[in-house]
Design goal:
By secondary structure, the chain is an alpha+beta fold. It contains 19 helices and 30 strands. A hairpin with an 8-residue loop joins strand 8 and strand 9. The structure holds one RNA strand of 76 nucleotides.
RNA sequence: GCCGACAUAGCUCAAUCGGCAGAGCAGCCGCCUUGUAAGCGGCAGGUUAUGGGUUCGAUUCCCAUUGUCGGCUCCA
């Protein structure tokens, strides 16, 4: 995504206001000032160190340094201790406006600051390195012998910071100005709050996120793995993960079937010429793997499915009566990702997109957008994502296609968003060069946003492949093409699902829906009868027939996050009942098998 | 890719200064026949990620490779 140029519209205005509110808040000042105090502590330890920038960020702050040696965790402890000392000594933060020349003298030994001053002086960028419109005044802040180039604001005295509510979190590498061609600096991340309880809350939240980490749960529940010998970023779906994937795919297929999609299947490789025509070898080559040679011809692994779908469209002469056409495919693509960015299921090198391409007439386009947006929302909601935010990205400076078409497409996207009632942001100029798009992001159970769906116009490929249909007038016309991935990739979607539910998937997606737990061996026959009955009704159940105590079986079922545990003993066997226990620890107790079945079926139907 | 940290049994983790690699869980075998989150005993499990080097001797020190983690950049 390019740099966001935000316009005032609905939610973004609210977000901008929130951001402004944050930047004016005491907490913001506390964090920003804590960053300065950290820089002071670091420079006391490494007088020859160079400082870069150190802003307050969401939940905390960071500061970038160029230091003579890598920092260790022990260094961090020492720095944090010294910071508390500085805070408690009650240093004042003093602001002073200086001329560029004065600043240059002050910071003559700080090359990064010098660069910032030059930026400020020429009126090109602010002290965070962001482009600005007006030439700002240059201000400096000093505290306890440490002076920093800074716009502020800051606390007036360090006593406003609670030394028990700050904590340094970790050290990481970061490029100066985020540019990989420039020096790598050491960035220390920290967090700061008004009260110690808030710090504790925040650390709990981090802990909670760690517990939900799909990589951890993926192993605990035996859902998937990656293997050294196979390769980084290549996913092995284990039986339980595979079961869930299959359930997702079945639901996906049914919904697509019922909504006018056709299913297509396409190969994993295609000749160089295909990717020349599509333009991928021009603009996407960096993400594509080296070609394989087949009888002297170069073939590339596909990074996208669209060229194949375009060829299916092209394979027959199309009438305006045939449109819209909706081709859907769970297409597995391979993209080169730099080793450092790989991350569990979220960022991989081979993944399956739930892809589709819509081809329609210009007059059908608004309805088609409405359709695809609503279809997407319905599916996402079925998976338990109720908080969905949309992002509309419009025409960038460099683009292909007729500007009038762009405008029509953007208007259709925005109208459709308005009709949907969704909150949305507009990223003006943030679209791809080939068309505007809507991205949908879902909020998970602990408030994090994940991008899943994307709905993109493409004015490029129909042109490149010379797609046309015959109109009412008997003449060829270029169709509109919409590219959409709804769940995004099955791998990432699975990762998001795992984190959203912390592994406790809704019943309809649980690999095992009920564990039948016989108390003693003599209950095994009855347990098998219950199993057979539930199987017949379509439930995924298992009997835990290990020679273990009931308590152990309950514990294991609970840890496996199986939705229903059905304990069967003498009483249940006599009365044709099962004793129901839920994975949240609730214990509704005995009920007739038929009643349990009704309950389970209603939970499944409600996608609970 | 870059910066930093890390890699020991299926999993979670020990092993002092360079001196015979160990525990819990899981697995297997047996005993117990059990009422809502771990019953008891035994057995087995290792080229210490891979390759090289230093050393009388390397899990430990050095180099390379692969992978993982935290970030940067990028992104479904």
């Amino acid at each position: 995504m390019g740099r966001a140029f935000l316009f005032n519209l609905g939610m973004e205005e609210r977000m901008a206001r929130q951001k402004e509110q944050y930047e004016g808040s005491q907490l913001y000042k506390i964090r920003h000032s804590t960053a300065h105090i950290m820089a002071q502590a670091v420079l006391e330890k490494f007088p020859e160190g160079k400082v870069a920038i150190g802003p307050a960020i969401e939940d905390g702050f960071y500061y970038d340094f160029d230091l003579p040696r890598p920092l260790t965790p022990e260094d961090l402890e020492g720095i944090e201790k010294r910071m508390r000392g500085i805070i408690q000594s009650g240093v004042n933060f003093e602001r002073k406006v200086v001329s560029a020349d004065e600043a240059k003298v002050l910071f003559r030994n700080q090359p990064f600051k010098m660069e910032l001053i030059e930026g400020l002086e020429s009126g090109e960028m602010d002290d965070d390195g962001n482009p600005i419109d007006e030439k700002p005044e240059i201000s400096i802040y000093s505290q306890g012998g440490f002076t920093d180039l800074c716009r502020g604001p800051h606390v007036t005295n360090s006593r406003e910071i609670n030394p028990a509510a700050i904590k340094l979190l970790n050290v990481a590498g970061a490029y100066w100005r985020g540019d990989e061609k420039r020096p790598m600096l050491q960035r220390i991340y920290g967090t700061a709050w008004s009260k110690p309880e808030e710090l504790k809350d925040y650390l709990c939240r981090l802990e909670e996120a760690k517990k939900r980490d799909h990589r951890k749960i993926g192993q605990e529940l035996d859902l998937y793995s990656v293997n050294d010998e196979i390769g980084a970023g290549l996913i092995l779906w284990h039986p339980k993960g595979g079961r869930i994937r299959k359930l997702i795919e079945n639901f996906w297929s049914e919904e697509h079937e019922a909504n006018g999609y056709d299913f297509v299947y396409t190969p994993h490789i295609g000749k160089a010429q295909l990717w020349e025509t599509s333009g991928h070898l021009g603009f996407y080559k960096d993400n594509m793997y080296s070609p394989v040679d087949i009888e002297g011809q170069q073939y590339f692994l596909k990074p996208m499915n669209c060229p194949f779908h375009l060829h299916i469209f092209k394979n027959s002469l199309r009438s305006y009566r045939d449109l819209p056409l909706r081709y859907a495919e769970e297409g597995t693509v391979y993209r080169y990702e730099r080793s450092g960015v790989l991350h569990g299921l979220m960022r991989v090198r081979g993944f399956t997109q739930d892809d589709a391409h819509h081809f329609c007439r210009p007059d059908q386009m608004p309805a088609e957008i409405d359709f695809v947006l609503n279809f997407s929302l319905n599916i996402l909601r079925s998976f338990g994502f109720s908080d969905i935010h949309a992002y509309l990205s419009t025409r960038p400076e460099k683009s292909v296609g007729d500007p009038a078409q762009w405008e029509a497409a953007e208007a259709a996207l925005e109208d459709s968003l308005n009709r949907s009632g969704l909150d949305y942001d507009v990223d003006r100029g943030g679209g791809a060069f080939y068309g505007p798009k809507i991205d949908l992001k879902v909020e998970d159970a602990i408030g994090r946003e994940w991008q899943l769906s994307t709905i993109q116009f493409d004015f490029n490929e129909p042109e490149r492949f010379d797609l046309y249909y015959i109109g009412e007038d008997g003449q060829p016309h270029r169709p509109y093409m919409i590219h959409r991935a709804l769940l995004g990739s099955l791998e990432r979607f699975f990762g998001v699902l795992i984190e959203h539910y912390a592994g406790a998937f809704p019943v309809w997606l649980s690999p095992t829906q009920a564990a039948i737990i016989p108390i003693a061996d003599r209950h095994l026959d009855y347990a098998r009868k219950v199993e057979a009955e539930l199987r017949k009704a379509g439930l995924r159940v298992m009997v835990d027939d290990r020679p273990e105590r009931m308590n152990a079986k309950i514990r294991d079922a609970q840890n496996q996050k199986i939705p229903y545990m059905l304990v069967v003993g003498d009483k249940e066997e006599e009365s044709g009942q099962v004793a129901l226990r839920l994975r949240n620890g609730e214990n509704p107790g005995p009920l007739l098998l038929a009643d349990f079945l009704t309950l389970a079926k209603s939970d499944i139907a409600a996608k609970k």
